[in-house]
Amino acid sequence: MSTPDTTKTPATRHPAPQPQPQPQPQARAVCLGPRSVAALTLVSATGVGAFGWPLLAGPGSRVGAHAQDAPWLFAGLLVLLVAVVAATISESGLGPKAVAMLGVLAATGAALRPVGAGTAGIEPMFFLMVLSGRVLGPGFGFVLGSVTMFASALLTGGVGPWMPFQMLAMGWFTMGAGLLPGPDRLRGRGELLMLAGYGFLAAFAYGTVMNLSGWPFMDALASNVAFDPQAALPANLARFLAYCGATSLGWDLGRAAVTVVLTLTLGATLLKALRRATRRAAFESPVTFEPR
To answer: What backbone phi and psi angles, to 5 degrees, belong to 94?
Structure first.
């Protein structure tokens, strides 16, 4: 009579699943303090008034009576305010490493702007501003957008009363990318889609607010889409929308499309490069010099 085999086959052990590496917290080139936030809030509120006064001023108001002079006055005021904000943010912690990266990115953006000059909406500079603001944060993004637009205006000869408005609008554009959610967690395709969507909408917003800065210069007697100081808000709003559709809609659409295409095709590579550069820069650690 055979005895039963009592030996047990050892159970197969599966290796325990390894935890997925979590994204490292994203370094910030500038940590905004209370003074910097207050300065940004002040200049943004003033900028809203500088851009939107044609729609905010009532019929027959004194501001509307100076429709040809107001953009010049606001341009001078915005230059001072943007300079104050940049100085405040610099004082809050824009160290030598951040200044070096600011110079590189601003020079690159200024060099990219003339690439599409004269061609409807082909402006790759906006794609660089979106990704830079996303990686380096809202404070650095505002300074980068303003400095890049200033440098590109000097490079292309585009200096005029519109330049301060461009500096502020580009500062908003780049700062907004730094305020998008999930800077430390969201990665991959989802992040690219979010940045592409933001770039698409912000490209139209940039063109719209820049239209507001030049719209009052038009003579109401010369066109039925020009700003009329004696008209009420609904009439002027209809004129402004018609002005945008007739003058800049095609350009804004081209800018938005180029920003989306470049973000989806080159965004992953550039985001990795920018994040690698910020890790190596170690903005949080102070710069020390060894004695010779």
So the answer is: -85, 85
Token pair recorded at residue 9: 């086959």
Closest by CA to 74, choosing from 95, 107, 43, 103, is 43
Handedness of CA 163, 168, 174, 176 (dihedral sign): negative
Residue listed under structure tokens 């592409």:
196
State how far the Cα of 94 lies from the Cα of 144, in Å rounded to an integer.
Answer: 12
Q: What is the DSSP letter of 120?
A: T
**Dihedral sign (CA 34, 35, 36, 39):** positive
CB of 89 closer than 8 Å to CB of 32? yes
d(CA 263, CA 265): 6
- What burial letters (b/e) apply to 132-167, b meaning 16+ CB within 10 Å? bbbbbbbbbbbbbbbbbbbbbbeeeeeeebbbbbbb
Amino acid letter for position 268: A
CA distance 245 to 239: 10
pLDDT in tens, 244-264: 888 888 888 988 999 999 999
CA distances from 113 to 66, 108, 142, 149 (A): 33, 9, 18, 9
Q: What is this structure's pTM?
A: 0.77
pLDDT in tens, 22-65: 555 565 656 667 777 777 787 788 778 778 877 776 665 555 54
Three-state secondary structure call for residue 281: helix
- Number of CB atoms found within 10 A of residue 95's CB: 16
Cα(214)–Cα(51) distance, integer angstroms: 9
Q: How far apart are CA 131 and CA 195, in angstroms?
A: 8
In the block, residue with structure tokens 């794609």:
127
d(CA 180, CA 165): 23
> Residues 6 or more apart from 5 whose CB is under 8 A from it?
none
Cα torsion for 102, 105, 111, 113, to the nearest 10°?
-100
